Amino acid sequence: DHIFQVLATATLISLFLTPFLIAGAPTFVQKFEKLFLRKQPIPRDDMGADSGDSHDLRNHVIVIGYGPAGRRVVDALRQQGELVAVIELNPVTVKEARKDRLHATMGDATQAEVLEHVAIHSAIAVVITIPDHRAVTQIIRQVRDFTKTIPVFARARLARYAGEMQAAGADLALDEEDQIGIALGAEITTRLSMRLSGVVPKLDSVAIPPPSG
């Protein structure tokens, strides 16, 4: 009976504390890292890039994340003749970016030294394409610690995160839910109009177009 009471009490206490612990976990981890963990410098082999040294970066756009969304952004920027620097955590993806002749850095963009390595002070814009909204918000705040004027564009997986990112300092938080809705609405109305006119549309996958403006 005594053991049962102890276990039952511990269970109730843990159930009560869990929501508060989860909510405070990101802040706790940040403070823990600053107080107790010694930051290790990123090796030069990982931070360097095949296409040039960080000292050559000036008037460039920093793209954080080189997944499918990041690659679309990079392609659009390069077509406009912009110089691009990529920050990515995945070493395999970093190698792919370097094969694409990009200045690619492997590192965590929430860390100040990683942003410094890609010359944040001389960049003309920052684009954050990673899906984790907590990391995106933290990166925005880190960028704003360096500069209040550089334009910051962020990807928001859900509509409710867009306001949080803008409050953190993003100039634009592009809401995926909104953009998917716009693209689906446009495609559906187009296909239905084609059917009404006697034309059977080809059913294939549709790429979401970039937002106008």
Explain the overall architecture.
The chain is of the alpha/beta class and 213 residues long. The chain is 52% helix and 13% strand. Strands 3-2-1-4-5-6 form a 6-stranded parallel sheet, sandwiched between helices. Strand 2 (83-88), helix 4 (91-99) and strand 3 form a beta-alpha-beta unit. The longest helix has 35 residues, at 2-36. The model is unreliable at 38-51 (pLDDT under 50).
In short:
This protein is of the alpha/beta class. Helices cover 52% and strands 13% of the residues. It has eight helices and six strands, in the order H-H-E-H-E-H-E-H-E-H-E-H-E-H.
Total helical elements: 8
Spatially, the strands of the biggest sheet line up as 3-2-1-4-5-6
Mean pLDDT over the full residue set: 84
Uncertain stretches of 5 or more adjacent residues: 38-51
Biggest sheet character: 6 strands, parallel
E-strand count: 6
> Which overall shape is indicated by the principal axes computed on the Cα atoms?
extended
Strand content: 5-15%
Q: Topology of this structure?
A:
Layout: H1 2-36, H2 44-47, E1 60-64, H3 68-79, E2 83-88, H4 91-99, E3 103-106, H5 112-117, E4 125-128, H6 133-146, E5 152-156, H7 159-168, E6 172-175, H8 176-196
Parallel strand pairs: 1-2, 1-4, 2-3, 4-5, 5-6
Helix pairs in contact: 6-7
